[in-house]
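Reopening: structure tokens for the S-adenosyl-L-homocysteine complex, inputs below.
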Amino acid sequence: MLLTITTTHRPATDLGYLLVKHPGRLQSFEVSGGTAHVFYPEAGEDRCTAALLLDADPAARSAKGPGKGPDTFTLRQHVNDRPYAASSLLAVALGRVLRTALRGDSRDRPELAATPIPLELRIPALRCKGDAATFFEPLGWTVEAAPIPLDAAHPEWGPSRYVDLTLRGTMRLADALNHVYVLLPVLDDAKHYWVSSDEVEKLIRAGTGWLAEHPAKGVIARRYLAHRTSLTNEALSRLSDVDPDADSVIERAPRPESLAALRRAAVVRQLAEAGASRVLDLGCGPGALLGELIRDRRFTEIVGADVSTVSLEMAARRLRLDRLPDRQRARIRLLQTALTYRDDRLRGYDAAVLMEVVEHVDPPRLPALAASVFGHAAPRTVVVTTPNVEYNVRYPGLEHGRMRHHDHRFEWDRAQFGAWCDDVAARYGYTVTRHGIGEEDLEVGTSTQMAVFKK
Ligand code: SAH
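Re-run output (same inputs, fresh job):
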């Protein structure tokens, strides 16, 4: 089973940093389906290809079976095509071996990990039920799926169920890998292991930012969850529940709309009180706050900035930018930027908002974010919101010690947030006040904490 990933982004060998796998070495990993090898058939400045090859071990698979009675399922697997065709096993290997790249993290090339790059993914033997294009095209891929003949010597026997799949597109490597991670088992439609409820979690996580909007999300969820109706329903209801206004599943649980809406209202109030009319929404995500800002005439120039192009596209769709009358359209702009790098386009505004953004940034990168926002963009007012980790004990669905969202790099208590605010204020010449958002609990405070910086 083979997947190759090629880029022509220059220098193409940066692919090694994104995958966290050195182009000069063959690396092998024991995974649940056998042994996975990562190597680079080509590694030049102009073009670099990484290969993930899974050597499937038929005996290794019974371990994850339902474990009841004679395992006819596994027996069947022993005599079929599994070792040669890409399938859910390859997806499992991908999840294990390229975990960091799937998360979109890169210590050495964080900006590149966040940037769409030209990619070509190829799976030379993929068992494919249905048309691969239905699944990949809506995600922005150009799809080539060449049917593999059953027997090359007997073309009259017609095609096999296998295709040689090539995907071409320009996107973030993490998005590309997540598409493949979810859609391989969907195309195969024969999950090799017992599907339990954690699979719903995995699907929601890997589908972040694209699955809720996918026209075939119903088939995708059903096949991914091995046709288990209850799990499929759970996944679909969670997907349709994905309120792009809130960035956390947990916060929505107890009271559906409230916290995200309260947060937006509190932020808008601060901007209005500061008399700001030209405002930046930094890390705007899919644009929930932008939607409120544009409805409010006090804000004459609004910029939404985010590192994620997928989020910006969602924002453009939600705001119906293409249908706004010219006068309105002129008030708003979306731009892609990484906040840990100085960006001159962000200078000269009255106010900036960082709503639920800092906790998505790796702590060692926070000083760079502070330098670019408070030091370089330097608006008169900056409003920051972030979760108050002390409040997490009030979320019954949240296991002790877990964070509210899988992409959070940390969650601060009130003292930690206070210390960061004071340090930033002192360093960049601001004064800061702190406020709570949400119902105040005497012991643990409010769910969201907000700081307002002024200079
Ligand atoms: N402010 C929005 C979205 C919060 S989710 C809201 O409250 O609804 C965090 C957002 O920050 C994501 O959209 C993510 O893409 C963005 N983000 C994280 N790190 C970033 C960085 N270094 N530069 C720019 N945006 C970043």
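The chain has two domains: 2-240, 259-454. Residues 2-240 form a domain with the c-terminal autoproteolytic domain of nucleoporin nup98 fold (CATH 3.30.1610.20). Marking as resolved unless the reporter disagrees.
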